[in-house]
Specification:
This protein is an alpha/beta fold. Helix content is 37%, strand content 14%. A 7-stranded mixed beta sheet has the order 3-2-1-4-5-7-6, sandwiched between helices. Helix 4 packs across helix 5 (118-134). The protein binds zinc ion.
């Protein structure tokens, strides 16, 4: 029996999203918290942001790396799926499946499967189906078959009650800074100000959302997630979140 060399790309947690800056808005605090706990985290952006109202794909690449540093992410990569045209095709599923095999995450974070932006909900289904493909032994796309143990959905973009919340009270400021790293998107500018509100307004919105989900779980700031499976409990006296 020959020992397999350790995979230098191996991640504990991989977050997949349609656009650069989605992860910063929906689960950046959680990624930072997991990195601080010693887990290796990564981000896969499906698109490069060439359709954005402000800034170029090159600007966004630089900003995405700055944001990744703030969130202590070990690995970040963008695929070449066309921006505003994320489609659940065989080719795109293979691209994501290849990344899942190469990075072997135990936990995969996907966007929630409903939403306003078609790229977001399509990325959710595409990501789930890529996980399925990634585990097929007879599918030869390089690297060993691998499926994440756990798939969870970041629900912040959609109004649905989460099944759990991650306490990001200690990570909130850094997460906000990671979002502000997208200077071409979020700095105070005239052009497109109807869509892109000024700094103070963004701060108020981001904080209100984090407060809301934090409050549901009895903490200051939180990020919401949904899992399809039920929760499993060993000791009833250790279940968190106060009832009354
Ligand atoms: Zn987006």
């Amino acid at each position: 029996m020959s020992a397999t060399p350790p995979n230098p790309l191996a991640l504990d947690i991989l977050a997949v999203a349609a656009h650069r800056d989605d992860v910063e808005q929906t689960c950046g605090g959680t990624l930072l918290k997991m990195a601080q706990m010693g887990h290796r985290t990564g981000i896969l952006d499906l698109t490069k942001g060439e359709m954005g109202t402000r800034g170029s794909a090159e600007d966004r690449a630089r900003e995405a790396l700055d944001a990744a540093k703030i969130l202590c992410v070990s690995w970040r990569h963008a695929l070449d799926v066309p921006d505003s045209r994320v489609e659940n095709t065989w080719e795109n599923r293979l691209k994501v499946a290849r990344v899942i095999r190469e990075t072997t995450p135990r936990v995969l974070i996907l966007p929630y499967w409903k939403g306003r932006h078609p790229d977001h909900y399509t990325a959710s289904i595409l990501g789930y189906e890529a996980c399925f493909l990634a585990g097929l032994k007879k599918l030869e796309i390089g690297a060993e078959p691998h499926r994440p143990f756990k798939i969870i959905y970041a629900t912040l973009y959609y109004d649905i009650r989460p099944t759990f919340v991650v306490d990001i009270t200690d990570q909130f400021e850094a997460r906000f800074e990671s979002l502000m790293a997208y200077k071409t998107q979020f700095s105070d500018q005239e052009a497109g100000s109807g869509i892109f509100p000024a700094h103070a307004e963004i701060r108020a919105r981001v904080e209100a959302m984090a407060r809301h989900y934090g409050m549901l779980a009895g903490v200051t700031y939180g990020e919401p997630f949904l899992q399809k499976e039920v929760g499993l409990v060993e000791d009833l006296t250790l279940i968190p979140v106060k009832s009354i």
